[in-house]
Amino acid sequence: MNNWVKKGMGPLAAVMALGTVISGCSGGGSAPADNKAAAPNGTQTPAASSSEPWKIGSEPVSFTLFGNYGWYTMPPWGKDVFSKHVQEQYKINITAINAGGNAEAKLSTMIVSKDLPDVIWGDRDKFERLRENGVLVPLDPYLDKYPNLKKWAGDEILNMLRSKDGKLYMFPNWYTNKPTGNAGYVVNKKIYEELGKPKLETTDDLYNYLKLVKEKYPNIIPFEPGQAKEGKGVDLLFSAFAENNPASYAGTLRAVPKDGKFTSLFADPVYKEAMVFVNKLHREKLMTQDALTQTVDQVREKLNTGRVAVYADITATDYASKADAELSKSDPNAGYFMIWPIHKPGLDKNKIMVAHYDRLGWNAAAITATAKDPEKIFAVLDWMTSPDGMRQIVWGPEGMYWKGLDSEGLPNLTDKFFSEPAERTKNMNATNDLQFVGNSTYNDKIKVKAELSLPEEKRSWETKYQDAITWKTHMDLTAMRGIEPPQDSPEGIIRERWIELYKKVRAQAILAKSEQEVIEIIDKGEKDAQTLGIEKLNEYLTKRWKENEEKMKKK
């Protein structure tokens, strides 16, 4: 998956203390061909339909769905309690066509044989090729007739998703109108308290604290940045050295926006300052020494056994929440807590943005030209993204874990929701991979309501810190989404080479033997980047960014 919104990092990636993982997933499918012809522009024109909207549940509707991921296998629709209720009550049936571990090969075979699924679900950047081949149906004719997507996603998000021909082909998954994100700094509770709860706000505070940890706890890792070869906590520290400077500029965009255009990252004095600090931590053994080679499992093991004093990561709440639960099993006083993001002295702490969020959400679903009745499929997807669809698929049939709605249209949770956590967790987790047009704007409200219904000591670790810290320290970079050039274009080739150079320079800077060597490494990296054509790439990215801003202004 792309680096912007990975599974487990999206709007609903939180694992609630209520025990429910509500993450955005889905997939599967294959369908009979029909006689619709390609439009002159290479797209497909939906068949004419009646003026009255088709009503969900008025008659059976079935379609096939293909999840365009090698790792994804769609659970059987109707096997779990929730989807079985939807199958029976709303007469909806979805059949999977699974990738079998090789999604690209499977999809190519289906395109060549013209035996496409009715719906394809996957990363958004994979759909343009399908549109150019004329195998997707534009969704615009249905937006007003079935209004939930347009109402909840809004014009800005839908315009961002439009293709070059101005039409909409993608139905977004886990789109949102509010901040999301799981990045930040996590502190070992026991160690912090034993050291007298020193101030831990600035980069100076952090450095002094890590030195104290090293001195007092020789078997503890002072600072754990996760897998540094992927950026993670190393990139996160970049955000501490300037206001409104998320780690995403370094780890995802690899460019810094200044005065309305993207500029070279290696020429940025803030990046140099941040890498000098990271290198200092590494040289003084205040940071994991195998940060560039360790695996995810090794990071988790260290957290789960309490061998970390401070942990920083883009996915901090995901790993730390599980580690907190593990440690507190045997010792109620053990575990982790989050702190407000670290900042360089003199900066406004409230303007430190650790990472980004993207209102477009995670991925998308698209209806193919071989679908027998695309309007009915759209009607189903539109219902699924509605409040009623979200309640049925994510929270279950009415009367089980909720009954009736409050004044905000949110479900009233029943006693059974709280009294049977294990059973509820099993039932709710069963539809995680069937949630392929999720509406985070509505669903997050239910999640927060569920948390606030609990005594404070029983509220989820994730939601507590998301609400108090992480959602307040992530920056909206929606307009900078989807600006990457095609891989086979001149700019795309430059980008691939630039990414490799960036990773190499970052690793060399971490391992450098002195501050001066860090600066020399980055300066040489800048010269190499210019030779690669970084300016041409940044001009391309800037143009696409500005185009996105204009798209979002349209009504």
TrEMBL record:
**Which keywords, in A-to-Z order, does the entry hold?**
Cell membrane, Lipoprotein, Membrane, Palmitate, Signal
Per UniProt, the ranges with Polar residues bias are: 41-52
Pfam families cross-referenced by the UniProt entry = SBP_bac_1 (PF01547)
- Chain intervals for the UniProt region annotation (Disordered): 29-54
Phosphoprotein in keyword set: no
The protein depicted here goes by the name Extracellular solute-binding protein
- Species for this entry: Paenibacillus oleatilyticus
